[in-house]
Amino acid sequence: MSSPVPGTPSVPEGSAYDLSEPVRMRARWLRALWADRLGRSGLLLLGIVLMLVLVGPILFPFHPTSFGASSASILQGPSSRHWLGTDELGRDILRQTLVGGRISLLVGVSATLIAIVLGAGLGLASGYFAGWRDAVIMRVTDFFLVLPTLPLIVALAALFGQSLVITSLVIGLTSWPQTARIVRSQVLSLRERPLVQRVRSLGATDARIIGSHLLPNLLPLIFANLVLVLAGAVLAEASLSFLGLGDPVHVSWGTMLHFAFSSGAMGVGAWWYVLPPGLGIVALVMGFSLLGHSLERILSPRSREAS
Amino acid sequence: MSLLEIDDLAVTYTRGESSVAAVDGVSLQVDAGEALGVVGESGCGKTTLGLAVPGLLPGNARVSGGQVRLDGRDLVGLGERELNAVRWTTAAFVFQGAMNSLNPVHRVERQIAEPILAHEPGTSRAEALDRVRSLLEQVGVAPARSRSYPHEFSGGMRQRVMIAMALACRPKLLIADEPTTALDVVSQAQVLDVFDTLRRRHRQALVLISHDLAAIARTCERVVVMYAGVVVESGPTAILTPGLGEASHPYTRALIRSRPSLRGPRILADALPGHPPDLALPMVGCRFADRCPVAIDICRTVVPPTVTIAEGHSAACHLVSEAVS
Amino acid sequence: MTAADKVLEVRSLHVEFPVRGSHHPRRVVRAVDGVSFDVARSEILALVGESGCGKTTIAQAVMRLVEITSGQIVSSGSDLASLKGRELRRARRQFQMIFQDPFSSLDPRKTVYDTVVEPLVIHGVGADEADRRRRVLEALDFAHLRPAERLADRYPHELSGGQRQRVAIACAVVLEPALVVADEPVSMLDVSAQAGILRLMLDLRDRLGVSYLFITHDLSVAWVLADRIAVVYLGRIVEIGPVADLVSAPAHPYTRALLAAADEASAASRSARTLRGETPSAVDIPAGCRFRPRCPLYSELGEPEVCQTDDPALSSVAAQSGRQVACHFSEENP
């Protein structure tokens, strides 16, 4: 008998029901996120950045070729005409920052999608099939896990050239191992659940068990992980571009920092050139991290049992 | 004066806007050395009742009325620190699945000794470990195994280790919530034997909360039957065993009938239809009326009074009160 | 009983698990150690024993949910133990399982309808969606989940424990299997819900002719439900027979101890009869009779040598049909 009493300890009768209640789930997540201090800060931070980056360029379009007319217009501090000053070519920093955020986000998101698909896929296969397949996949994962990622990314980017696609691929292909490990460990526990045993004894194929029962139950976990990977990917993109390995045509926040550095803007104290992209990166990474950690806490079975 | 006196206790859970009285005016007494069984289906409020005594209610629950007096001391409204002292030394609690709450990385002797060292400062480690060994003996675990780790024990043994821990500070009252539910018959019997021994040798007072009528019938002298937050019948446990006594309330009778018995005929009883009422809704009349096979009109409108059937046996049912008067 | 009447024949089933973390490669847990039994059409056979005795592993082996070390599981002429892949999946239609925990055996994200229609989809049963819907609603109604139309759209968390178990049962019978393996299906339910589930299982037997392999630790449940009982101890059947005979005149000392533990009315003498100690580990099964270390009869008889040296085989009890016991001294009834 289900107890009509909310929170009565006698209800679950020794059962583990971590992943339950799909209907009100989405609303509950959001409410829980908002109630959590970290989650709320993350949401607010991301909300502001996304608004600026998505709507900003429409209001303040950036023309990469609108160079300054004279040497007097380069590396100028904030003024009424250029709210955040100009760069070494006399272009408006505010407009450039707003567009640059789009590039940073674009690379971050596509790299994350690659990493999540790879990580979740390999983690699922590894956890579900066990045996030699598990061993092989996990050794490969361990290999990638212990590789020093940044030097590897730098080497790969140098090797394959500079374009948004290459950058996304390189970051994506090096960011999956954590996801694979997390998904695998969850699959290992789900696999032993009566649910999976019951469906298997019905005669379901592996594809059905994975696609119809495991994956939907893994989605919250994968989603929380995705947000954290996003933070890492944005940071990786910034690092790469800062080192001059980004796409020079599509200027991201990292690339802006790179040009600020190489043009000597830092040397002449042009803080208005460095601060906007720098703060943008910090806000984005922090927003995703806060959100990710908060989600992880809300969705993890253990913390839910306690709540 | 009784060891434990619960008087008109009400416990309310709140979630958002709604509040639910999981325990709604329950009174009972336990004398020193006595064993009382509390029986009912899940959601009837028996666990909440048990948690309310040592002040272990979850955050969204509070005592909204009545009194809990333990050994002459009113427990409602005590602070956390005072309750903590009461919990081990006066009323100890063994909850369902307690056996899984042992710390896997510590030897059991250390875990049982912990409350002794915490609550009885001045006890030396050697004295505490001595006491651990005698406690283990009391619960039927060889004292030599005190240096084992929890995983080296079976479920039934771990549950007995938890009982030993609960007894560490010689509490006057032991409250056990579904202590045998997750165990098989033989382990169940062993745990229940432990309770018997404790009561015979040490006059240990016990409140046994369970949905298992058989466990209560063999361990306790008196039983309180709860339904939807209220007590519907209380009396000697003989009323639970056909042939020894007779239950008066239709709910108690239904519970007894639904339990297959090796002594009984090989027929399956009729299941009790329906579900307990939603406690969030207002209650009119008898709470069992909707499921009651013998309900009459008055049952749906008037709350039944508790009437005494015999010395120490009472029930809250209109049909019983008609028969008695 | 002729071969045609049998829906399941298990022949010398062994299931062994490697001991994890052991340096001895050959140290194994002998979870099921040579078990043979049959289940006839429409018969309910209860496997009874303490936790860890191997009864659940037997159920899982029959369902091919664990790797079988050796032995045969014969159903309608073919040995399920040797099937693989597609053939195994097809054969699974004949056997269905009900699990102990109704909370974790249903998918929390699927409605009752989606859960019960799944077996039909898997095995391609039903002409079209409408036909499947009809079958699902029929199965729900059958399982007393009424009104079926409305309950079909519910999620597991909106149901009580008893209702969830009914969904699991509807799911198991919607394919009209020959055998249902039920692993402690009522032990996590309230008393009042238990009787309803047991009654439903009996109904299904009477109406569909389905057989049950019913796993329970509770002899009193087996008593009201089963036709025959097999008592399992440490991976072996130690006694098997018709339920009335076995309960009224248990022949194995272990059966007697189990009965004593389950009999609530024997309060006066219970302490003397409660089984002492724990089941030995299935890694180190005692030599001779495996029940010897806990056997009250063994000490009463002055520790006869045969119990230390010979592993008693399951053999017929004189003058009782279908009754077998594995004890050297089964005739010595105290």
Set down the secondary structure blueprint:
The complex is a heterotrimer of chains A (307), B (325) and C (334).
Chain A: H1 25-35, H2 37-59, H3 93-129, H4 131-146, H5 149-160, H6 164-174, H7 177-191, H8 194-202, H9 206-242, H10 253-262, H11 271-299, H12 301-306
Chain B: E1 4-15, E2 18-30, E3 35-39, H1 46-52, E4 61-70, E5 73-74, H2 80-89, E6 91-94, H3 108-119, H4 125-138, H5 155-166, E7 173-177, H6 185-202, E8 205-210, H7 213-219, E9 222-227, E10 230-236, H8 250-257, E11 306-310, E12 313-316, H9 318-324
Chain C: E1 6-18, E2 28-40, E3 44-48, H1 55-62, E4 70-75, E5 78-79, H2 85-91, E6 95-98, H3 112-122, H4 129-142, H5 148-151, H6 161-173, E7 179-183, H7 191-208, E8 211-216, H8 219-225, E9 228-233, E10 236-242, H9 243-248, H10 253-262, H11 270-273, H12 296-300, H13 305-309, E11 315-316, E12 324-325
Parallel strand pairs in C: 3-8, 3-9, 6-7, 7-8
Antiparallel strand pairs in C: 1-2, 1-4, 4-5, 9-10, 10-12, 11-12
Helix pairs in contact in C: 3-4, 3-6, 4-6, 6-7
